[in-house]
Q: What sequence folds into this?
């Protein structure tokens, strides 16, 4: 492009050429990746720092939580077992974030030259699958936790309540379903076309872009997750009214059930507050209906709102066992 004395507007196949021409974003099409720049995979320094901070917090915090429930909690209960499954899911998201932060460090200053290779690489596909597995496992484990709490409060003597034996069978089904959801985009097909992920290998669809496979992403992230959290929201609202009306109930066992329910409510509602905004942003009136979402909001959603949930949960797990 050095031979052009004056180049005001450029429309090319890849943003790489916009970087080579050294044009402003508004003067060159296609537009760049929301999270990335010509130089770096993660263009915002503060978000780059949060990748490392929240990733390490999620990894170490959840490892500690798992170890705590294995070594320190003498009596195993359905609640402690479900908590360990949730910690495993959140721990994997910490691994994902640290890997993305490492890739950003590796391509620092020259990212755009390797952007296409990275997005189509097996490593990115693996990290995208890991992120999907982790996030969906967390959602469905929360669904199971809520269902268990609801049954124990409304029908404390029901034979349908989870036991230490049945909880592992239920979680085997849940994790098998999540694995299936996560690996579907890896199946060779004309639908996904080998390119399903963004620069951070995340499949959440809350932008106006329509990459191959975006309908599948919407069905999972904004369909399945939305239904799960609507159930969680109304279930805990109902449980709260039952807890309030039963606050004077007699009996230590009943009192313990109510105490555990209050503490588990804190965990689930925290997850709800992190995921529900993502579902809202992905609805038709926003990303799918023509109302665009600022790139900064997408960046903060991916790098801060979603990961902070995995990083904060270990603290809440400790509270729930006091």
A:
């Amino acid at each position: 492009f050095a031979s052009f004395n004056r180049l005001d507007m450029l429309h090319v196949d890849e943003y790489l050429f916009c970087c080579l021409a050294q044009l402003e974003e508004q003067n060159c099409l296609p537009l760049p990746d929301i999270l990335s720049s010509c130089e770096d995979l993660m263009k915002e320094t503060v978000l780059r720092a949060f990748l490392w901070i929240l990733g390490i917090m999620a990894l170490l915090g959840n490892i500690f939580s798992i170890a705590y429930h294995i070594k320190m909690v003498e009596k195993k209960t359905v609640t402690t077992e479900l908590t360990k499954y949730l910690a495993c899911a959140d721990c994997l998201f910490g691994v994902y974030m640290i890997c993305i932060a490492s890739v950003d460090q590796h391509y620092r200053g020259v990212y755009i030259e390797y952007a296409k290779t990275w997005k189509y690489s097996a490593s990115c596909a693996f990290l995208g699958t890991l992120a999907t597995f982790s996030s969906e496992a967390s959602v469905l484990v929360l669904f199971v936790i809520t269902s268990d709490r609801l049954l124990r409060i409304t029908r404390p003597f029901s034979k349908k309540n989870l036991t230490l034996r049945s909880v592992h069978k239920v979680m085997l089904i849940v994790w098998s379903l999540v694995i299936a959801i996560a690996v579907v985009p890896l199946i060779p097909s004309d639908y996904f076309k080998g390119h399903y992920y963004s620069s951070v290998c995340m499949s959440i669809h809350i932008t106006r872009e329509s990459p191959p496979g975006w309908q599948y992403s919407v069905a999972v992230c904004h369909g399945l997750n939305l239904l799960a959290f609507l159930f969680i929201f109304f279930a805990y609202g109902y449980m709260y009214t039952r807890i309030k009306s039963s606050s004077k109930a007699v009996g230590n066992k009943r009192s313990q059930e109510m105490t555990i329910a209050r503490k588990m409510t804190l965990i689930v509602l925290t997850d709800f507050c992190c995921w529900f905004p993502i579902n809202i942003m992905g609805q038709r009136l926003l990303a799918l209906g023509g109302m665009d979402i600022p790139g900064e909001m997408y960046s903060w959603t991916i790098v801060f709102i979603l990961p902070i949930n995995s990083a904060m949960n270990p603290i809440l797990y400790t509270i729930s066992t006091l």
Observations:
- The two ends are 65 Å apart (CA to CA).
- The chain has a mean pLDDT of 77.
